[in-house]
Write a structure and sequence with these properties.
about 110 residues; mainly alpha; two-stranded antiparallel ribbon; about 10% strand; single chain; Arc Repressor Mutant, subunit A; 7 helices; 2 strands
Length: about 110
Amino acid sequence: MLNKTGKIFKALGENNRLRIVNMLMSKPMCVCEITDIIGLSQSTVSGHLRILKEAEIIEDIKEGLWVEYSLMKKDELNKTLFKLVRSLFDNDELLEKERRSALLADRNILCKK
């Protein structure tokens, strides 16, 4: 248990990964949607997603042409962690803007750029 917990906190110890988790709290997303909102390169976002996946914070599912990333909510530790993260983010204007942008992101438009 401690090993898993340590991986989770290490993965969430980086601001951009916290921002990604924040967006995924709104809806499942593909790399190009996340990249468009967060303003980082696709390879950087993919690296962050890999770390979050290895820590069992997110999961990926092939959805047609895209790989869709979503929060892994099956685990009670993750559910509790997401509630904590959400409460910490509630008053942050940038993170709220990114959550709203996540809801509006459309991979059918963004991924064709």
